[in-house]
Amino acid sequence: MDSGPLTYAIADVHGCAALLDALLERIADHAGDRPHRLVFLGDYIDRGPDSAAVLRTVSRLNWAEPERVVCLMGNHERMLLDALQTESAAAHWMFNGGEATLDSFGARDPAGLPRDTLDWIEALPTLHGDGAHWYVHAGLRPGTDALGSDAHDRLWIREPFLEGDHDFGRHVVHGHTPQRSGRPEVRRFRTNLDTAAVYGGALTAGIFSDAQGPALEFLQVRAS
User: ω into residue 160 within 30 of 0, thus cis?
Assistant: First the structure.
């Protein structure tokens, strides 16, 4: 293993605050004194038991060390923001797990969520890159340049991104499509870290170096 900084990427927490706390402890133990970064791939909220606690944890980490902790937007954060605009979007969000998020905040509707939390979510980027990787929630459309890719694709795409092997110049690290096996999906040009934590699978951190594409290894925690 090279001696450069490590990047720990985490996808699709979906309100599983206890699993997130346990995984962050595993990361701290694994990293030790070695410089490291955290990249969260979005979908902090919905379906799971404590979206409010997850948002508190990741936003505080991001606010404290924005150069070391990157937080991306997921499609569930996008649905929440859209829910503030129209009743139909609010109904769509509620159908996709939004009620659990409201309950965790003790709110009756999206407008009752804390303004600073909504402002933080609205400012989240949809893509992050380093020298060897692109980090994104859902994926990228084949044949497009990552930096010029469509924001909607970054949040929502499945096919044609998931089919075949598409080289975007850097290894793509993503979530969004749950792996019900509880194991990361590792392909030649991409790694899917959504291991279905909210469905009883695992919450996973992929460990990446600055020098190569696929993960060096994975850390996982599961519900007891």
Answer: yes
pLDDT confidence tier of residue 2, bands split at 50, 70 and 90: low
Q: Which residue has the higher pLDDT, 223 or 54?
A: 54
Closest CA to 42 of 177, 212, 165, 202: 177
Pairwise CA distance, residues 206 & 224, whole Å? 21
* pLDDT score recorded for residue 53: 98
Share the mean pLDDT of the chain: 96
CB count, 10 Å around CB of 159?
10
Whether the pLDDT of residue 98 is over 60: the answer is yes
Residue type at 165 in one-letter notation: D
pLDDT tens-digit series, residues 29-40:
999 999 999 999
